Amino acid sequence: MSSLLLMAPALLLLLAVFVWPLLDYAWLSLQAQSVFTGLETVPVGAANWQRLLADGRFWQDAGQTLRFALVSVALELVAGLAIALLLHQRWRGRGTVRSLALLPWALPTTVMALGWRWIFNDPHGPLNGVVQSLGLATVPFLASPDLAWVATVVADVWKTTPFVALLLLAGLQMIPADLYEAFALEGGTPWQGLRRITLPLLRPYIFIAALFRLAQALGVFDLIAVLTGGGPASSTESLAVYAYLNAMRFLDFGYSATVMLGMFLLLLLGAAALLLWRRQAEVGA
Amino acid sequence: MRGGTRTALVALLLLWSLGPMLWQLYTSLRTPEALLAGAGGLAGGWTLANYGAVLGGDPPFWRYLLNSTVVGALSTLLTLALAIPCAYALSRRRGLLRLLVGGGLLAAAVFPYVLLFLALLQVARQLGLANSLLALCLPYAGLQLPLAVLLLQAAFAELPPELEESAVLEGFSLWQRLRWILLPLMGPAVVSTGLLVFLFSWNEFPIALTWISRSELLTLAPAMARIAGSSVYTVPYGAFAAATVLGSVPLLALLLLFQRQIVAGLTQGAIKG
Predict the structure, then answer these.
(1) Which residue of B has its CA nearest to A163?
(2) What is the DSSP letter of B97?
(3) Better-scored residue on pLDDT, A137 or B263
(4) Predicted ipTM?
(5) Which of A9, A255, A259, B131 is the most buried if burial means most Cβ atoms within 10 Å?
(6) Are residues A101 and B13, on separate chains, in Cβ contact within 8 Å?
(7) Domain contains A186
């Protein structure tokens, strides 16, 4: 009984912050509330949802968000594993390097996004400085729809790989060293050791890192808002940025709520598919 | 791995992690003419004027750092005050409730919270919470509670139950047991959880962006975005860079001081989650 009392304040705040907004959106998505209604709410039935289904920009952004998340997280897992393996070995100065390598993750995203905007600047940024010194024409990294999304991926990989590396490092520290010694005695090479011991035992950690990072990357907002603003021509726009623009720039609150709820439903669907796939993989194994 | 290869790899890692920030440091110390003349030059054109411009702005840049620090510290205290009792109670329970609350907390911890900003903004408007640094701590505490409770309840679960049982026999009340027996042993977990909450609140963007409009109340993240969007700063990149350097220094200090605790916090989460 008293334990419920101890949990009550925290649970109440959690309900207010996580559950209330979703209920609010469910109601708001059935209303029109925009400059056309004088910001009053007017019930419109399923009109917002019909608009969502036919909204090319929503589905384009959904595709772009998924592409951003999958490519970023895949690169982060590979780079994170390499860094974790390096930081797991014993050498002098390892502690300092660990904290320095963590810096990108600790910085506010808006701070580093501003920094990357300067690095990608055309023509004065350092990257184009290198390009020019090779005698080539400068590259419009942030002004070309084909390159701008790659720039957002690079900035995201830079920022969040340390987080992945740290989680995987925790996993590496759980693997007993004598496993490797026994494996080496039987003539296994380090590369085989990585594939037969490290990766299988690291699987739960890789799963957790991928789960956290995928969820964060699918909700990407800060980075894109500052680095590209969603441009050029909405080619880097994520669903979160689109929902934000609908509310704060187009002042269309009813539709913004619909976009956010739509995105939430897509995430649920994705999570369900992932769980199902994982269960089947376990049964199959 | 041979020593030489490893040294090269470590150098590569440091170059990748620190390079972009070092480039900001370099840019922040160059005059606009030197920057336009060509990137990478070292001769002439060094200046501190960019820092003068940023620190002498209206409001001065240190104001944003101060606001972020206040919000970070208060949010951390509020989160811990709510999370510690909840984590204790959760760690002492078995059965369905624990399963439900634990699962809900995990789902909330991975939820992309940016989705919540519009509803939270409406609440803020209705209750008159906009443009208040104190009020900003409420959503921050709520958003960080899931992770904080999960980390802390794992730490509570590690304490031997005999400890508390003997305290009960001695006639200690619940509050006395928490205050004098359990919490002193929880020091490291509380510190590392607190640091993660502080980092989140210091860096948070979408909610601060929509709740705060008065420029002297901006925290660091929306202030940076505003600088990025203002035409005043578009040509003199030196001022941009000076702002990013000033915004990074406090966190670099925090990392160097508390590297161990931050790493412990993150890795505990991985092991227990």
Answers:
(1) B266
(2) H
(3) A137
(4) 0.88
(5) A259
(6) yes
(7) yes
- In the prediction, which pLDDT does B236 show? 60
Question: Residue A126 is part of a domain; what is its CATH number?
Answer: 1.10.3720.10
Chain B CB contacts of A102 below 8 Å: 255, 259, 262-263
pLDDT score for A283? 72
Domains, chain B, in order of start with CATH, read 21-34+44-272 (1.10.3720.10)
Among A91-105, A262-276, B108-122, which is the least confidently predicted range? A91-105
Question: Is the pLDDT at A183 greater than 90, yes or no?
Answer: no
Of B86, B220, B227, the CB nearest to A108: B220
Is A111 close to B110, i.e. CB distance below 8 A?
Answer: no
- Which pTM value belongs to this model? 0.90
**Residue that the structure tokens 């890692």 belong to:** B13
A73-79: list long-range contacts, CB under 8 Å, 24+ apart. A73/A210, A73/A213, A73/A214, A73/A217, A75/A153, A75/A157, A75/A161, A76/A156, A76/A157, A76/A160, A76/A161, A76/A164, A76/A213, A77/A164, A77/A206, A77/A209, A77/A210, A77/A213, A79/A157, A79/A161, A79/A164, A79/A165
Structural domain count, chain A: 1
Decide if A255 is inside a domain.
no
Could you give phi then psi for residue B46, rounded to 5 degrees?
Answer: -85, 145
Q: Is residue A106 part of a domain?
A: yes
**pLDDT of the residue at B232:** 44
- Domain assignment present for residue A122? The answer is yes
Instruction: Tell me which residue range forms the domain holding A162.
Output: 67-227
